[in-house]
Amino acid sequence: MSKSKPHVVVLGSGFAAFSLAKQADLSLFDLTLVSPRNHFLFTPLLPSTTVGTIEFRSIIEPIRIACPAAKFIQAVCKNIDLKKKTIRCEGSPPETKFVLSYDILVIAVGSSVNTYGVPGVREHALFLKDLSDARKIRQRIIDCFEQAAQPNMSDEKQRQLLHFVVVGGGPTGVEFAAEMHDFLEEDITKTYPGLSGKVSIVLLEAMEHILNTFDAALSEYTARLFKRQNIQLRTASPVKKIEARKIYLKDGTAIPYGLVVWTAGVGPSDLVKSLPLPKDRSSRILTDDSFRIPGYDDVFAMGDCATPKGKNFPETAQVAQQEGKYLAAALAKKIKGKEVRPFHYRHYGMLAYVGSNRALADLANIKGKGFSTWLFWRSAYLTRLVSFKNKVLVIFDWFKTFVFGRDISRF
User: Fold this and answer.
1) ∠385-302-323 over CA atoms, to 5°?
2) If both were cysteines, with which of 17, 320, 346, 366 could 303 make a disulfide (CB 3.0 to 4.6 Å apart)?
3) What angle do CA 321, 322, 325 make, to 5 degrees?
4) In the sheet that 231-234 helps form, which strands lie side by side, from edge to edge?
5) How do strand 163-167 and strand 200-204 relate by DSSP bridges?
6) Is pTM, for the whole model, over 0.90?
């Protein structure tokens, strides 16, 4: 590490942090990334991995390979001393502890799952934030079918095991329900023919409509499509509590289940909660228009864990990616002593997969839906994957699924 160049420490390895690292001019500063995850994850395709449409390693890229000029440390930041300009970390294994100093700090730790204080969520539901979550879901789906296929299993028990509940009608919940439908329609009917008629999927949403950030016509189209796909959609149905085999709604309804996937919302990480910094109602760190935290000239925050004061950017990959690219350029200008202009977010639209080879595209001038939009959805995500390797792997995964079906092995 050069003593003549400032040391920039970036906390995180998501879209914001990764975009900054890829775009950074490392002739001007030394860069260290600190994250408990040693890879970048292309989260828009994460729901596809839960049922084997895409394999897990096809949508990740190791940080050390993608950003070879930067230094990477696999660790969790536990505390930030803003006065001494140091961070306290726990490595892997947790017994490894160290303190790292910085000249410039960028907080891009993302968000965590928001359970809204609903009892039983952390004990009984599975989340969909990381590859480890997707793997647990995939294993649990197969477990449910294998248990239901056991001899002398009652019809009632089979239907309970094969009742899959998705909580949250945002893009992640909708896409997971859609992937589940495709899995059941295209693979389970062949591999578990005696159980296919006993499978059910229900999507619970606390608000009046699903996909509230999308155009209303696209939301209504998805609701109609789900009805044709036999995905039960229950809106205005907030969850009261979750027990080992039943989920209870606030209207008193009790729903038996074999699997509950919670995609209802995001909240602040433990680190962000602990920081004595100004925050908005969602506990996101408030910054100025260049992501600098007021009162700290050398501390910045971006991505899902932060927002410029007076703005309410959506917590999406495209926002975080643009912020990371902007801050890489802004840091270069700051070090050179040049003027830094405010960040300007450009909204390119939203995409979502809704099953049966159909997708949605909510763009500035186009509101697309159906098969042709699905082709656009696939091509758009394919071009945004990080490396050529990822692109090749995803193409082969799609081809393999089309020809051979999804793998149902449990290991």
Assistant:
1) 50
2) 320
3) 90
4) 126-127, 259-262, 163-167, 200-204, 231-234
5) parallel
6) yes
Residues 176-186 have pLDDT tens digits of: 999 999 999 99
Does residue 314 surpass a pLDDT of 90?
A: no
At position 38, the amino acid (one-letter code) is N
Q: Angle, to 10 degrees, between the axis of helix 131-148 and the axis of helix 171-183?
A: 40
Of 40, 39, 41, 34, which Cα lies nearest the Cα of 96? 34
Tokens of 184: 């059941």
Closest to 107 (Cα-Cα) out of 335, 346, 279, 314: 279
In angstroms, the CA 243 to CA 259 distance is: 11
